[in-house]
């Protein structure tokens, strides 16, 4: 827009007068019309003056006003000494508006006559922003309906991004569906969530806003939808109001550009911005959005790109993007890049200030979507039930765009009763989707149109689309120009048919028009249909687009070739293609496409052959089960050859995999950990593994939630492997049990290194190993840093006093640990005293188990002193120690003051009657204890009487265990019966092994019937 346009907007005769300037001296009474107009100009531009005046421009203003004697020397000094730049500007406007109209006229005249960018922004900013927002809103309004398809029913305002620390190996190297299958759309608890409104804000008060932000997400997750939502929200003034200009671009738009400058690019995309330098300079906070890096035709080269810092200089488009991200070009503007993860990993980590990830649908999100998507709840219920029983389809639905494809296809089948059973594989589902899109465009009479009768143009279109999809897939090309379509025989008019518009998305911009498949998986499916049909008549290698290649004849040779290419592709980009290719050998998958593909009847021989071929690949792989190998199990699922899959799943469920984990079984187990939440949430490999099978399965064990590796005779060499497992960024393990193995201090050291970096593990069970005091010390050093683990079991590990002292140091500083099991570790009194000193300051540990640790009165005394100060511990296990009467009395004193402890276990100590009577005295007043275990303590009737009287006053005790005290007899029974008549909180009492006899039992049973029907008494 020309400057004259802005000048006309700001014409003095059209300005709105302003009345209430907060900076005006209240003593002033001048009220001429001219002054009111002058005051209005300053007020109207106050925000722009604050935002855009630079120190140098402020200096020019002061010099100009001093030269005209509008400002005195003293006033100039007052402005310069006002403090921050904004304070200086406030002081200047205060002084100017307090004067007569001359001061305001001089300031206004200087700014309006200046040719500087600062002056232009002050004058024209509001009008420029208003027009820019109007243009963006009009442009993005057309995408609303399309966004509802690509990210259906997704209320982005209520969703959050995940703040991640770089990209994992899985994200950098594997296919999108592999990534989604592993995470299952779930938000990882250890990751911070970040709302879209805070995406470009500092994370702390002392940090800086990010310059380069990278948002990653798999294809169809909604990256572009998030971008468009952000732009609309910004245009409406809802979020990020401190950003002056948002300049959104897609890499699909940039693909047809060759060489241009940054300013020319902005001018080309936004013709209404007449002077791009105004929005690209340092005075203006501008956000440049580069959406869809994975769709860029150029591979960014950050090491060899020629540096460029001139926004007017024309450079190749890839160098332009590289220099913008590097900060050589436009260093003062913020940049937001979105991409699929694998391509995003090509940007050096040091250039990116913030990485966020878009999470997929969770199972709950899928269910909500179905209920919202369908007006008839019965359809939603049936589809949800079908997804629950078909794990592979559920995995696909974690991606919102695929969720829409799945839901609409299943609905269409149910409404039209097109087949007896719903699709059970991805291939069946996509075949029905394409059939649906083709049939929707056909003229319909009273009778349903048979697929064999579909118009021939659809058959030709499907073939050409498949060829485009296949060779695009080989080239990692997912966005196509109009010329690309013509090159593959696809007429632009035909793309508007039901089939064409159903599988292709057309997008227009001011720069170009592009096409893409509705989703990457649809491109992969159509590629597979092309390959399937072509391989039955092709005489050359289809992976070579030219006819100059080695001869290759016969379907089986072409099928084998496809898998060779797939297994050799390090990034897995052909994984889903070969799944679909395998699935097309099933009659249920090919039937919906029979009319479109014009295939003859299949005798099933190829399906049988393919099953044998795939099983051969399972056996012949390397020593480690890679995701390429796991993809073979996915192919068996698509082929509906599932005998081995079902067998391994059943053995895993029953915990009976011992001796059965051959390499094919390991591959299938890896597959199950991907697609079955039940298998990954409870992975029981107890007594099933050795060092070689651990090494074989290692990459797949990453994706378990609860991993049980008990009784596998693991030694320290295996712990090195498991340490690398727990150290990986991709690790999803939350609980791991290594109980009953042969782990020593060396294994504990390997584990400790992993705990320094692991962010997912919350529970660690090392019961019945032999880490010793040295191993405990290694782990203690890690636990001082680790802020994730909440539960650790060190039972029977010979930790001894020295190990207890190391762990006590952990409790002094660690505030995440809530459960610690140190039973059977020979801690003695010295170790117990160290732990007690830590408990005096630690109020976050909830459960402490110290059974069988040779603790005497000395250790007990230290613990009771700590309990007087501790307000966190709720469960304390002191079974099978050597605590006597003195220790019991000290515990009684502590219970008078501590009302936090709920469960106290003093089984098999030496408390005797005197000790129990002291504890009974405390129970009268204690209001925290709910469970008390006193079995095997040589208690007689006198102590029982004291307990009974205490229970009459106690209103919180629910469980009392007095079994195996031998001497309670009839008197003890009477006392307990008395307690039952008065205390109605008790729900369980154990009196076994106390010789109360039949008479005593009758007394108690009568008391229960009369007053305590809710209490269970074991006699």
Q: What is shown here, in short?
A:
The protein is α/β, with parallel strands linked by helices. The model is unreliable at 1-39, 149-153 and 443-454 (pLDDT under 50).
What does this structure look like?
It is globular and about 100 Å long. The chain is built from 47 helices and 25 strands. It starts with a helix and ends with a strand. The protein folds into 6 domains: 3-114, Death Domain, Fas; 131-357, Rossmann fold; 367-422, no CATH class; 454-602, no CATH class; 709-715 and 722-870, Alpha-Beta Horseshoe (Leucine-rich repeat, LRR (right-handed beta-alpha superhelix)), CATH 3.80.10; 883-1019, Ribonuclease Inhibitor (Leucine-rich repeat, LRR (right-handed beta-alpha superhelix), Alpha-Beta Horseshoe), CATH 3.80.10. The chain has a 13-stranded parallel beta sheet with strand order 13-14-15-16-17-18-19-20-21-22-23-24-25. Strands 2-1-9-3-8-6-4 form a 7-stranded mixed beta sheet. The chain has a 3-stranded antiparallel beta sheet with strand order 10-12-11. Residues 211-341 form the NACHT domain. Its main location: membrane.
Give structural attributes.
single chain, 1019 residues, alpha/beta, Death Domain, Fas, Rossmann fold, 7-stranded mixed sheet, 47 helices, 9% strand, disordered N terminus
